[in-house]
Write a structure and sequence with these properties.
4 helices; six-stranded mixed β-sheet; Rossmann fold; 185 residues; alpha/beta
Amino acid sequence: MQPIFYDNPLAPLLIRNYLFSSIPEYVDHLVVLCIGSNRINGDSLGPFVGTLLSGLYPKHMTIIGNLKQPVDATNIKEIVKQFPASPSTYTLAIDSVVGISDYIHTIVVRNGALTPGSALDKNLPSVGDISIMGVIMEDCEDIATLPYTNLHIVYQMAKAIALGISLTVRQRFGYESTSSILINN
């Protein structure tokens, strides 16, 4: 999938289209693993997404990670061990990443796992059946500027991702079009 600019008004629909076509028919539950920190602006994408989705569609979606209880380098190994193990469960992994200059401030969705912490040379487990990555900064930039990333951009990116996931679940599992899309707008 081509990168999606965070401020593209169609971003949630593009994300929904990709997810809807990528999730196998046999899947009856999604685990949304929202990776990141609640203390570093540039690493808060996952926790924002988790907070926006918390409590929605509990029959078909489990959210792991939010602003109150983030999933980060200190606890991800333990959390991954506790994942619901079922062949009918599919995992979406969401994280902030660094990338090439053409991808800055875009959302990249692709099949396959992501490896959190790789920009910081962390040795963490790869997670997810589908990866949703928000490209926050260029990989050659000083990583020390990550805490000072524009929080508005991170939040708008999180809203687009959360809406895309919510629309996917609503369509995939037949929820009414009047059902809530996000907890907090």
